[in-house]
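Predict the structure of Copper binding protein, plastocyanin/azurin family.
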Amino acid sequence: MTKKIIFRLFLVAGCFLGGPWGGLKEVLAQHEHHQAEATGMSPLTERDFYRIETVKMPETIIPEVGGLAQLDDGSMAFVTRRGELWLVHNPNGESPYFSLFASGLHEPLGLLYKDGAFFVAQRAELTRITDVDGDGRADRFETLSNWPLSGNYCEYNHGPVLANDGNFYVNMNLGDNGMGGNAEPFYGEMGSHAKWRGWVMQVAPDGTMKPFAAGLRSPAGLGTNAQGELFYTENQGGWVGTGYIAHVEEGDFFGHPSSLKSAGEPESNIHLTIDDIPRDNPLFHQAVKQIKGMKMPSVRIPHGIMGISTAGFVADKQGFLGDFFKDQLFVGDEGHANIVRVSLEQVNGAYQGVVFPFRKDFASGILRMEWGTDGSLFVGMSDRGWSSTGTERYGLQRLVWTGKVPFEMQSVSARSDGFEIQFTLPVDSASATDPANYQLSSFDYYYHQTYGSDVADLKESRIAGILLSADRKTVRLVLDEMREGYLYEINCDGIRQQGSGAPLLHAFGFYSLNAVPAGQVIAKDTPRLIWIPEPKVEAETPVPAISAKPATKQAVQADAAAEPRKLAKRTTQMPEWWSKGPDKTITIGTLPGLQFSVKEFDVKPGSKVKLVFNNNDDMQHNLLIVQGGATEEVGQLALKLGLTGSKLQYVPKSDKVLFHTNLLQPRSNETIYFEAPSKPGKYEYVCTYPGHFQIMKGVINVKN
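Done. Here is the predicted structure for Copper binding protein, plastocyanin/azurin family.
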């Protein structure tokens, strides 16, 4: 006990006297965590394996990082959305220092360094930037290629990326369709208002530009896999039920019809029109079969569960984050400020695979990532205009592997009759061979103009057999059915590590079964195979009907008069007994950055309230009125709804939820009626759409 007190006093003195450890709260938390680990008091967490460190920099620098690039001398460069290009010298050390290389760029969202020059995709051009006189400052800006603009706010350009073929590639974001003259009902909330919007463009070293692939919506990430092949990441919205990462090849079409406005251009390699787009809300995999040349994403990333705003990604070609994850992709998310992990395989010559959670709790929304010379992963962040769950508006951090091996699902591979799961460490055989420790289900999303999609055609899978390998690191699950074109949730929550009995660090992942591989079905007499017979379905015993004497009209009227009138949690019509109308009408809208337009309002106890919620944002929102102090609890419950969340409007069953709207599409509204609580106090309202509840909230003061 004495040693603990001395240690705490030492830390307090160090913190308040300018010691090197930072804030007292953070230091004590780290001490308690290491102490708990040493005594086995708590399970290991993400930070035990992958540590996040903030790169220290002068307060005068605003690192809204739009791109990162490593230089030959080990320095790191980054561009900011404010148009600056900074060099970070000694980036891996305790005291990095910074020098401004260039400024005046137009919102660059990517950075490439090659042969002593920087390449930046600005709003209107791909620019080559060099330091001719060697003074450490840019003095030559050359336009390599340019493209038309309409001036729309959302006409971002992501890249450039250099692929195996020696060409540059740039993603052209669609514009905001907005309202008024730009409104285009068929295309949805995003549209093409200038040539080649919604396309991947190829730029040759001599500046010659040509269209490469189409059907993009908000393609915030562009990069290559470990083999140097081109991939891009997409964000949920109209025609995109959920975000994804996709392998890009020349002539591919990924589904958003707005890009087809340029399909009639002489240079176009896409020969579709909007007449080829189905209007009957097919499942996404069905639409791919209907539209000639449309391509399935390699791995779909379930919206709200794995993230909400897919951004930049990197391939770990060197195994910097552990040899067990070598060649896998690490994908950043702007909205959830987290990184997910993608393991790919090729089936019938096309990429598909699985996505897992990996590391959360970054300071801000992740846009770009780049490897440092020491194997750490630099993470550049910004949330301006988009907002995120991170506590900061921007930042530059490093992710460092501690050297410990996490107990994880390393990869999942499809088989002709099921899936094979590889683990990073041996599993406990008793838990691994118990079918109750696995939950698998398959589902899809709709292909339609509506923003996003509910989970569609959800079906649980039955496990017919389990085969554990001799080294206890691989489990093969035999299923009674393989649904091609669907996503599979694979949950192994009951699996434990051999020896320690520790649970998986992340117990679930989502596999995109674009194609079922050919191969022999596993034989029932395979050694070590545990065959699970199909459960018998017992016939239900009919319950005899009990006749009841109908109630008289007088009895019904008496019961109605005696029973107090209570409104449902979602009442969208004014109650008929509100003869004088509502006592108060409140109108709440939305503001950029995940904000309600009204932060606080007052009502009297028991008063009749009409609340009009206008979602004038470009994403979905709801509004829940909850008990005071219950925002975090209700928000977490909404997250735990998982695949059923969208169907349930992200409204969890909880006594803490008093009233609510439905989940509203962009630029729509709903009116609800409720009676304010009779007990005075502070109540709260919150949007529980995944990733929003930490930020998007307000206060209701119930008082006389």
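The chain has seven helices and 45 strands.
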